[in-house]
Amino acid sequence: MSQSKEQEVFGKLSRACIVAVTVVDRPEDAVPLAEALMEGGVTAMELTLRTPAALEALRLLRRDAPQMLTGVGTVLTPEQALQVLEHGAEFGVAPGMNPRVVEAALNAGLPFAPGVCTPSDIERALEFDRKLLKLFPAEPSGGLTYLKTVAAPYAHLGVRYIPLGGLSQNNLADYLREPAVGGIGGSWIAPRDAILSGNWAGITAAARNAIRVRDIERSGMQS
Q1: For residue 46, what are the β-bridge partners?
Q2: Domain 3-217 in CATH: superfamily?
Q3: β-pairing, 184-186 with 44-48?
Q4: Where in the chain are the domains?
Q5: Region label for 185, one of left (φ > 0), alpha (ψ between -120 and 50) or beta (otherwise)
Q6: At residue 185, what are phi and psi to the nearest 5 degrees?
Q7: How crowded is residue 152: how many other Cβ atoms within 10 Å of its Cβ?
Q8: 35-60: per-residue pLDDT in tens?
């Protein structure tokens, strides 16, 4: 895989910072969902492979909402890594660190962030030169205190994390202040029931609130 391609995609992801993690049950909901998120300022999303509709939803997103940076999560097999790339995924994410999946993704040219939870997971990811990692599940594992502790031995290598699991509007600011955080995975922004009910206004409002916190924290870091 071209290193410049991965740097470009992960650079966009870092600048967006807030990644809406979504479960789509009906393909026709994908584009209205993306539009609702973008109206609120969220320009990156992770579409999880948890429903039969996911791949068709991905295809529609890439065709009709190309300005949304769209990746796919819950990539559990090498075959899925190839499938999501064929359907237009711009990056892939996994809940765990499966060497076969990472190798397949990288060989195919798919920017990929595996999931980690322990130092051993991080070191396995580093064997594949993975420097952007999904920390999952973040809050049940010990939250921000755990993230700071587990990240410390690898900080000099430039490893950064996207925490997911238990994050919300209430603890978003705390995570954004942590230098090891390279982005936030937010499943609260577009909950599955809100997508099913077509509550696009509610999703836009949640997205806008998350972006407001992001911008406040960024301005604080620069001052």
Answers
A1: 21, 71
A2: Aldolase class I (3.20.20.70)
A3: unpaired
A4: 3-217
A5: beta
A6: -90, 115
A7: 10
A8: 999 999 999 999 999 999 999 999 99
**Interval 165-174: pLDDT, tens:** 999 999 999 9
Taking each helix axis from N to C end, the angle separating 54-64 and 30-39, rounded to the nearest 10 degrees, works out to: 50
The CB density around residue 32, as the number of other CB atoms within 10 Å, is 15
- Helix (H) and strand (E) counts for the chain? 11, 9
Q: What is the pLDDT, as a whole number, of residue 223?
A: 57
CB-CB contact of 210 with 39 (8 Å): no
pLDDT per residue over 3-25, tens digit each? 789 999 999 999 999 999 999 99
Note the pTM of the prediction, 2 decimals.
0.96
DSSP for 102-118 reads HHHHHHHT--EE-EE-S
Distance separating alpha carbons of residues 91 and 67, to the nearest angstrom = 14
Q: Is 220 exposed, middle or buried (0-12, 13-18, 19+ CB in 10 A)?
A: exposed
CA dist 88 and 98 (Å) reads 22
Asked if 46 contacts 22 with a C-beta cutoff of 8 angstroms, the reply is yes
By annotation, the residues acting in catalysis are 46, 134
Which is it for the CA torsion 169, 173, 178, 179, positive or negative?
A: positive
Our measurement of the distance from residue 167's CA atom to the centroid of its chain's CA atoms, rounded to an integer in Å, reads: 13
E strand residue ranges, the chain: 18-22, 44-48, 69-73, 91-93, 112-113, 115-116, 132-135, 160-163, 184-186
Q: CA–CA separation, 42 vs 31, rounded Å? A: 14
Residue with tokens 């001052």: 223
